[in-house]
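Format is sequence with structure; example below:
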Amino acid sequence: MKYAWQRFLALLTSGVKVVLSLLALAYLAAIVGNLVHAFDLYDWLTLSGPKFWGGQVWRLVTYPLLPFGLTDFIMNSIALVMLGGMLERHWSRGHLWIYCLVATAGAGVAKVLLQFSNPMPLTGAAPMMFGLLIAWGFLCGREIINLFIFGEITVWKLVLGAAAISLVIMFLTAGLVTALIMASGGLTGFVYLWLKQKWLMSRASCVAHSERMSRLEL
């Protein structure tokens, strides 16, 4: 148990610590506010179509701060530490934060478009976790990992399998629209990474072309 806890703490990168602390503090503040009947953060930060279209646009990125419940908070925190820490080592702290905001906003946009008149709020960091899961596949998809049950499997197959199972569960428990909203976090993240990769490749080719031209001129 002690070894497992040490390995878990080793995954905590600086960017993940900030995000995890923010989620924990927001959840704690929401609990305290409800206990003392002083304020209701869920009423201020969660996302719904009518409130967004009424001008409260900050909800598009604040809804992940408050979980659906304790189990939701624990599961998302574990996913954040495991996936976020790994991705931050590939990227940087700032890039991880930007990506989390992109995935969050993507699912938020899907929410207010698909349920523009539905007052049911969206809360929890699940769309962000879908985005982090897809990013893992995008960056390390061809790597082979060895699972005790399934044997050797590529990261992309594992990612798609885990995403499919999660979406089926959401579809059965919360309906098709909710599953689509959650999936939008991963889809938005994939499109963002794909466009960023294309942009970087185009910049690299332009630089190489300029260098060749300079040599010819000399």
Observations:
- Residues 67 and 73 are 5 Å apart (CA to CA).
